[in-house]
Design a protein that fits this description.
This protein has about 325 residues and is α+β, with helices and mostly antiparallel strands. The protein contains eleven helices and 14 strands.
């Protein structure tokens, strides 16, 4: 049998979303809407697209954000902070070791110093065997039942109590296409961080770009919650037809006793259920909070994979992130 090879595409095909949609490992983060959003955050970067081929036929696809780090170029699929999952879009019966080696070959051929991957289909043991470093964490997955009653029953009693309290207090949550939801979110987001002595890692243009890129393609639930006509909280929940994700949310710190955050999540869950979406990935970096665990579900492993092709590059990467994190914490001091 001929080995897997990656063939570079000149640009993203117009029917990219249709092409990748049939494969089991495809996620929201492979889709055009999300990739356009990523490029707004990395204006100097490009996205390289590949067709994975065997015996002259397409066996899948791969895309990676190409960024420069010092004197080197990095392929992020995804780059940390740009998405939860990416990696190769293939059927699950593809040999992972062969595929990982093919990805490494194309990275070297294109002068890439480091390749980064994350997809829950990839097997950590296999990736280690072919020379990838594995960074292990967890994420919180909440399966969504086919009806609201079952999803309601799966939540902890404390969560249901707080949602009832929110509704009895007159809070109303709804999906919105109003672009001012971004201003409401960011104002509360900044206030929450300020109270903790921290500064935001991104400005208001990032949620604006999220709204602009995803909402028009029906890939975002933007939800706000109102009390007596005033917006007191807002959240963003990107999704495809398989899973919904919690991007971020924030509420008025002075009105948390009204339980707006629980109502935001529950409203998003109901929207997902109405679309037949089966999974709510709440996230959990660095560890899932007690708040998120009230909604049911379980913790599952989240693993990112890196392979460096330049000696000492990995040590330099770790030092960079340590310094960057220290500077951010000191800014908030």
């Amino acid at each position: 049998m001929a080995k897997l090879e990656l063939s570079r595409l000149a640009e993203r095909p117009p029917d990219w979303d249709r092409r990748i949609g049939e494969f089991a490992t495809k996620t929201l983060f492979h889709e055009s809407a999300w990739l356009d959003f990523v490029l707004t955050n990395y204006p100097r970067a490009t996205i390289d697209y590949f067709e994975i081929r065997r015996d002259g036929s397409a066996a899948g696809y791969f895309c990676a954000l190409k960024v420069q780090r010092g004197f080197f170029h990095v392929y992020g699929s995804p780059l940390p902070g740009s998405a939860m999952y990416m990696g190769p879009v293939v059927d699950q019966n593809v040999d992972q070791a062969e595929l990982a080696e093919a990805l490494a070959r194309v990275a070297r051929r294109n002068g890439i110093a480091r390749l980064e991957l994350a997809n829950d289909w990839l097997d950590a043991a296999v990736m280690r065997e072919v020379g990838f470093e594995v960074a292990a964490s967890v994420t919180h997955i909440c399966p969504l039942a086919k009806d609201e009653a079952s999803a309601w029953a799966a939540m902890r009693g404390t969560c249901r109590t707080r949602i009832r309290k929110a509704e009895k207090s007159g809070l109303v949550a709804e999906a919105t296409a109003d672009p001012t939801v971004v201003e409401h979110f960011y104002a509360y987001f900044r206030e929450v961080l300020t109270r903790k002595g921290l500064t935001p890692l991104y400005d208001i243009e990032r949620p604006r770009a999220l709204m602009a890129c995803l909402a028009r393609r029906d890939r975002l639930f933007a939800v706000w919650v109102k009390h007596e006509g005033t917006v007191i909280g807002a959240g963003f929940y990107p999704h495809d037809d398989r899973a919904m994700y919690h991007w971020n949310s924030a509420s008025d710190p002075a009105r948390l006793h009204l339980c707006p955050n629980e109502l935001l999540h529950w409203t998003a869950m109901k929207l997902a259920i109405s679309r037949g979406i089966s999974t709510f990935n709440i996230g959990g970096e660095p560890l899932p909070s007690r708040f998120s665990q009230k909604f049911g579900g379980r913790l599952i492993p989240y693993r990112a994979y890196r392979k460096s092709f330049v000696p000492l590059l990995e040590a330099a990467r770790r030092l960079y992130h340590l310094v960057d994190r220290t500077v951010w914490l000191r800014k908030g001091a």
